[in-house]
Amino acid sequence: EVQLVESGGGLVKPGGSLRLSCAASGFTFSSYSMNWVRQAPGKGLEWVSSISSSSSYIYYADSVKGRFTISRDNAKNSLYLQMNSLRAEDTAVYYCARELLRFRYFDYWGQGTLVTVSS
Amino acid sequence: DIQMTQSPSSLSASVGDRVTITCRASQSISSYLNWYQQKPGKAPKLLIYAASSLQSGVPSRFSGSGSGTDFTLTISSLQPEDFATYYCQQSYSTLRGTFGQGTKLEIK
Predict the structure, then answer these.
(1) A13-46 residue pLDDT tens
(2) Is A66 strand, coil or helix?
(3) 8 Å CB contact between B6 and B87
(4) B96: pLDDT confidence band, cut at 50, 70 and 90?
(5) Partner A contacted by B97 (CB < 8 A)
(6) Does B5 contact A at CB distance below 8 Å?
(7) In chain A, which residue's Cα lies nearest the Cα of B43?
(8) Closest alpha carbon within chain A to B90
């Protein structure tokens, strides 16, 4: 059974940093691109970042470029999101999602982890 | 950047109704259009990928159509468990999955 479990969320002050993790199981993690998607309270879905299976291709939304860094460790079946210079508008539930290569849709999602940026 | 516009933003319907949600892209995205369902407090769930392909395990009352810039999600006969928010997503550009703003489907 495919499972994605996020962790690392919490309360952080503006300007602070946080590192999110996503532990994958039930599939060959190293064969799939992975993504982070976030959802601010009461708002819609916003794609944040993606990373290819071998980390060769990395993309970011303009809203996080230069502040967030996506990475992965295929040996540990884990995906990460390092978030620096956090702002109030980064407050959201952060989901990791598996991406299928053809047509690039997200077929499995984690349960999400809440990041709150507030003083 | 490709913009995705969903309509309506909210919709009231009854069990058994046929419902259609539309999604329009700001430029052609071929068939790189996906639909997700999200219930409160839960992660999104993939319903339709590549505009019209039904994800495994999704009931056949859900269907998708369209190509280019105009797409639709149709629920042929609403069931109580279908009341949720629906999002379209384009996966054509490298700025992955621009999502539509969502359509909240409520019970009439």
Answers:
(1) 999 999 999 999 999 999 999 999 999 999 999 9
(2) coil
(3) yes
(4) low
(5) yes
(6) no
(7) A111
(8) A105
* Torsion, Cα of A65, A94, A113, B46 (10° steps): -150
Of the candidates A46, A103, A111, which has its C-beta nearest B99's C-beta? Answer: A46
Q: How far is A47 from chain B (nearest CA, A)?
A: 6
The shortest CB-CB distance from B49 to any of A44, A47, A103 is to A103
Distance CA A67, CA A93 (A): 17
State the sign of the Cα–Cα–Cα–Cα dihedral A111, B48, B35, A62: positive
Given phi > 0 = left and psi -120 to 50 = alpha, else beta, which region is B93? Answer: beta
pLDDT in tens, B54-80: 999 999 999 999 999 999 999 999 999
Rounded distance between C-alpha atoms, residue A31 and residue A29, angstroms: 5
